[in-house]
């Protein structure tokens, strides 16, 4: 049988060695950023009902996790505190308490495992009594007042040992304001990874259980997080954050937004990260538990998809397991 130009595209797929030779995308441990949920206590872990296999860890266990991450070749951890209820308040002042849970986790990990990069989330939902990422007045999420709090939060985190400040709040102007404050206070080496195009998404449900903000949240986050119908607007968000001094940008959620990752890759010359968020994790785990999909295959396939779309790296709850697997 004759084909146009003699082409048979199956020829290079026929054997394992040939498939390996023509493979376009590789996944390595250095592509993986591991999110950790921090709780108070000593040698304490708690289960997250909607995230089977992920546990909240006390600071001492976070240090152990950081050692495991380092040994597996994971470059950085992203920390999220589950603030005790009595410390949550309307003004979220715990966010800039230099001795808060986040800061204690940052400094404990930094002194025990200095080789691992520490990414500190900056947003109010982990500290406020209403679960919103910003200050609330008469049902409005305040922008500039929230930015002032974000600055104070970023400063205590940098003081405690954060290497990368990651504002996930989606207030306007926060990247530039945080950059200026960091520079003023001698933290010019601290990076900013901007949650640049973060969508108002259903896929954050399990995360909100993990940090304890979900049951408090009234309403939604659609006045600051993006509308899932939009793509051009995501490019404006990214452009803005780069102009304000972001060192890298993030697209979030991950798999349902790979078009945004690819478009950002083609439009901007800056490191781009994608967040395989809690709901995506839960979908894989729960579908696998129900016998619907092959768990390990689905994990590797989804992570390669991020690389194929052009992401420099992925925040994923599967990071440790996959990094260890890749090293074997
Ligand atoms: C909040 C924040 C969220 C996530 C990271 N930071 C949730 C939200 O915006 O409601 C979600 C991460 C995940 O779902 O895994 N500042």
UniProtKB/TrEMBL annotation:
Pfam family membership, one: ALAD
Catalytic activity: 2 5-aminolevulinate = porphobilinogen + 2 H2O + H(+)
Uppermost EC category: lyase
Active site annotation, chain numbering: 198 (schiff-base intermediate with substrate), 252 (schiff-base intermediate with substrate)
Source organism: Devosia ginsengisoli
MF terms (GO), sorted A to Z: porphobilinogen synthase activity; zinc ion binding
Entry binding sites for Mg(2+): 237
Summary of subunit composition and partner proteins: Homooctamer.
Ubl conjugation as UniProt keyword: no
Pathway membership: Porphyrin-containing compound metabolism; protoporphyrin-IX biosynthesis; coproporphyrinogen-III from 5-aminolevulinate: step 1/4
PANTHER family with a match to the protein in the record: DELTA-AMINOLEVULINIC ACID DEHYDRATASE (PTHR11458)
Family statement drawn from the similarity comment of this UniProt entry: Belongs to the ALAD family.
GO cellular component, one term: cytosol
EC number of this enzyme: 4.2.1.24
A GO BP entry: protoporphyrinogen IX biosynthetic process
The keyword Nucleotide-binding is assigned to this record: no
UniProt keyword annotations, A-Z: Heme biosynthesis, Lyase, Magnesium, Metal-binding, Porphyrin biosynthesis
Protein's name according to its UniProt entry: Delta-aminolevulinic acid dehydratase
